[in-house]
Amino acid sequence: MSIESTPCRRRRARLAVACFGAACALAWLPAAAAENIPSAAPGRVQDPAPGWDRLWHTVIVDISIIGIVFALAMAYFLVRYRKRAAGEVGSAPVLSSASMVGWAVIPLFVFLADDLYLAANGWMLWNDYRDVPAERMEVRLESGMYSWDYTYANGVKTQNELRVPVGKPVLLRMTSRDTIHSHFIPDFRVKEDSMPGRMTYLWFVAPAPGAHVVTCAEYCGVMHSYMAGRIVAMPEAEFKTWLDGEAAKLAPAAANPA
Ligand SMILES: [Cu+2]
């Protein structure tokens, strides 16, 4: 048996720490680079919600099949090896080494392959999602205990209600003035943390006119559960009329500051 030298162990420890640090940096970069968001090429994901739904359904189907296979195998073994007489004691079959390895490794690889397939699909979808369509409307969001404060590009501000045009990707550049919140729009299948000192982003597309719940998905204080808002999707012309009207209300205030 060889014993590793202390310097060798230290080198390995340093390498492990460096790898861990690099992995953390890579995980942090996409969110940290929210000021410079990559634009998706035309034809890429134009609405993330259907992709997330498809992936979710695939996961449900896969785990259902796996569950049924395991349940059937368990039922078969329960019947096959049931106790047939009082006082009967069973005995485990003696397996060859090859059989033992096969029973352990084959199911492992079958289910691991499925897990990796699902993980790869999620990873690809997430990567696509992080590229935002170039044709988009941008809104700044500052979250705080306990409200969502939106600012449109023309300076119009709203609280707890974000009006958006139907069919157009909407990008939220988010930060927080106090603690960590998470802007969750269940109908659009998107959720992202907002936090002090850091800019994060999410985007979505409202496919039809209507109102959609916004809620905070990060426990942020005693009033966390009251931190609700809504997205109001409007036909584009109607939205433009509303936004221009709100901007016109700002103009006199800007011309005659109190
Ligand atoms: Cu919150």
List keywords for this structure.
258 residues, alpha/beta, Immunoglobulin-like, 2 domains, 5-stranded mixed β-sheet, 12 strands, 44% helix
Gross CATH architecture of the largest domain? Sandwich
In the predicted model, the low-confidence regions spanning at least 5 consecutive residues are 28-33
| Radius of gyration using CA atoms only | 27 Å
Structural class: alpha/beta
How confident overall, as mean pLDDT? 85
What would CATH call the homologous superfamily of the largest domain? Cupredoxins -  blue copper proteins
Number of separate domains: 2
Q: Considering DSSP H and I runs of 4 or more, what fraction of the residues is helical? A: 40-55%
Q: CATH top level of the largest domain?
A: Mainly Beta
**Straight-line N-to-C gap:** 83 Å
Order of helices and strands: HEHHEEEEEEEEEEEH
Query: The CATH topology of the largest domain is what?
Result: Immunoglobulin-like
Tell me, briefly, the overall form.
Answer: elongated
Sequence of strands across the biggest β-sheet: 5-4-3-7-10
